[in-house]
Amino acid sequence: xxxxxxxxxxxxxxxxxxxxxxxxxxxxxxxxxxxxxxxxxxxxxxxxxxxxxxxxxxxxxxxxxxxxxxxxxxxxxxxxxxxxxxxxxxxxxxxxxxxxxxxxxxxxxxxxxxxxxxxxxxxxxxxxxxxxxxxxxxxxxxxxxxxxxxxxxxxxxxxxxxxxxxxxxxxxxxxxxxxxxxxxxxxxxxxxxxxxxxxxxxxxxxxxxxxxxxxxxxxxxxxxxxxxxxxxxxxxxxxxxxxxxxxxxxxxxxxxxxxxxxxxxxxxxxxxxxxxxxxxxxxxxxxxxxxxxxxxxxxxxxxxxxxxxxxxxxxxxxxxxxxxxxxxxxxxxxxxxxxxxxxxxxxxxxxxxxxxxxxxxxxxxxxxxxxxxxxxxxxxxxxxxxxxxxxxxxxxxxxxxxxxxxxxxxxxxxxxxxxxxxxxxxxxxxxxxxxxxxxxxxxxxxxxxxxxxxxxxxxxxxxxxxxxxxxxxxxxxxxxxxxxxxxxxxxxxxxxxxxxxxxxxxxxxxxxxxxxxxxxxxxxxxxxxxxxxxxxxxxxxxxxxxxxxxxxxxxxxxxxxxxxxxxxxxxxxxxxxxxxxxxxxxxxxxxxxxxxxxxxxxxxxxxxxxxxxxxxxxxxxxxxxxxxxxxxxxxxxxxxxxxxxxxxxxxxxxxxxxxxxxxxxxxxxxxxxxxxxxxxxxxxxxxxxxxxxxxxxxxxxxxxxxxxxxxxxxxxxxxxxxxxxxxxxxxxxxxxxxxxxxxxxxxxxxxxxxxxxxxxxxxxxxxxxxxxxxxxxxxxxxxxxxxxxxxxxxxxxxxxxxxxxxxxxxxxxxxxxxxxxxxxxxxxxxxxxxxxxxxx
Length: 840
Ligand code: PEP
Ligand code: MG
Known about the structure:
Layout: E1 3-8, H1 11-25, E2 32-36, H2 49-59, E3 65-69, H3 73-84, H4 87-90, E4 93-96, H5 100-112, H6 117-125, H7 129-138, E5 159-164, H8 173-184, E6 189-194, E7 201-202, H9 206-211, E8 219-225, H10 229-241, H11 249-252, E9 269-271, E10 273-276, E11 279-286, H12 302-328, H13 332-345, H14 348-361, H15 365-381, H16 386-407, E12 419-423, H17 428-433, E13 439-444, H18 452-460, E14 464-466, E15 480-484, E16 489-492, H19 496-518, E17 524-525, E18 531-538, H20 541-549, E19 555-559, H21 561-564, H22 573-586, E20 592-595, H23 623-628, H24 630-644, E21 649-653, H25 659-678, E22 689-693, H26 696-700, H27 702-705, E23 711-714, H28 716-724, H29 742-757, E24 761-764, H30 774-780, E25 785-788, H31 793-802, H32 805-817, H33 821-834
Parallel strand pairs: 1-2, 1-3, 3-4, 11-12, 12-13, 13-14, 18-19, 18-25, 19-20, 20-21, 21-22, 22-23, 23-24, 24-25
Antiparallel strand pairs: 5-8, 6-7, 6-8, 9-16, 10-14, 11-15, 15-16, 17-18
């Protein structure tokens, strides 16, 4: 691979160009190094030969290094840098006369195609031609711009396809790059032209393709000659169908950061980042995060200091677990934020750094901890990735909690009056503690849409605008405010007309929400009369109340592990019975599916002294543990069976991967039933017993399980994790964690078909069930029961009422043929629009 060095007077400029290069290169292996600024901190404008030499060394490759420079002394410094290099390396380094921005983009694309140094340099040098040509056409001149070097006459033995470019901005940088990269994967000679224009250009040249200036709805003709011409054209056709990778930019990726100086900010409003949708009108409740002033104190006894530290750490760990479990009841994915906190609180490097400071410098642990946290924060803040930079906030948050604990202070956030919380930045743990009943909205000075507090605000349904800037610091308590969490706008002390306008918007938003809410108790039936049961996922009795309030048709998943977490011993049979019975009684004659214990994985139970596992998600989790521990499993089964007397309780076994596990679980259940009957304990004559499908082996062999189970419930969270080998909650592989991946959908179809053949029913109880884009596909695949967080039920039922089975069956069939979750989402979005449904 040819690698690239950018030499610029300004580190900011270079960083911006690198961002653009990454955008067009996608996952490419090309390395980019930057030599920018005149001093070590890169703050002073200028260039430095030694830095350039280092940058070249950093990305040196025998295939070559292309060096692009901005102006003036940059060229001189780059030439000097070459003199510092060993001769054999110098010969493989090319200083390129291309304009920095255009050249860098063209070079990045060409290099990512594996082109030679000559080719990459030529592309970069020709990079201005597109711009010159299009500007001269606009000016009506006939500027003498040479056609791109790759233009050629039409070949005769060619295959052709015609494509319409639907992208809003036409074939602009990113889609054009994907087009060129896709073409570049094939041997055939591929040319592209505008329809009705005989001038063809090389489809493997970014400059040439960009120079065509393709706009939205322009038709292009792609011609290919060569052995793999048909495959190449098919790939380009697919790419066009997926809008050249921009199909779902808006919904799948974080919203672009609105500029604080955006000209479309209405007068009087402040613009921030739309972090959580919704409107809020109310008075400011101003919170101030005051970082405690820590003094550096000399100490005599480092061991005593460290033991104080251990106690504080353990206390914070325990509180963090509580917050995590509380969030996990409804939002297991978001709860993983707090697993990252726990990791930081046990990070061996951080802890040994604290110990080192305490012992070497003989200073108080508060001081040492603050130093260690600052170092970690700085390390994250210096990364060139927004998402990772936002993690610095999390570390500061954990750091502050430990300090607060060490100092015996109390937490900052307790909001006991109704209003809009105004704060410089809100930590995830503070956000999790906010009571949505009091907190109408959130407005922060700093923050980003990928910060965990933003994610949690969405989770809690609190409208939020973050990153509004310094004006927020001026807001006084009780000042009237408006938050527009859709547009990312904040009004401080708005005038009457704005207030009236937003009061109307808020009322309308509530009406839509309440309409779904009002009809939530009614059955959800498709337009052509197919009833879909929408049940609730719950973790305790309080959730069961929320389920009823939201119109749940039953409980589709009771996660019993929440009874077992955060305590010193397991709940005994009677305690469990009380809970199961209370829930069943509350749900009256509605079905209640109780899942047997699903601990292990990300939910370890300390009092079980489970062995440490390298990969807990692949270890002794759920039924695997229960089969080993009848002392846990049997009391739970007894409690469920007893609670089932007089109620519609069903038993569900999680994480079944093999028929042997199912049969062992079933035989322990039969044994327990026999024991209870012998003792004369009242239990029903029959209890439905089903299994979760969370492991691909279970989905693939659903036809083997089907005759032996009463039902299947698809745990799409785990099924996706295990199908895509992407740990749930691990943000770095979040791009893979989409249950609409055809690989998951194909398994769901397999389960439905096997169940239907055996006369059994199928439910989906993972997050997918509540996803507006997934729900129609699941119904189309034949799933008749869904289970989700109580809050999602009204909207889900309302959506079902807009669907027609015949349509969604067609959509589902089509979705199964697509190549990625992204393609499925793109497709379903279009279908939802045809029935007037918003995309979700
Ligand atoms: C699932 O895996 O989809 C599921 C519902 O189970 P849990 O999220 O509790 O693992
Ligand atoms: Mg699961």
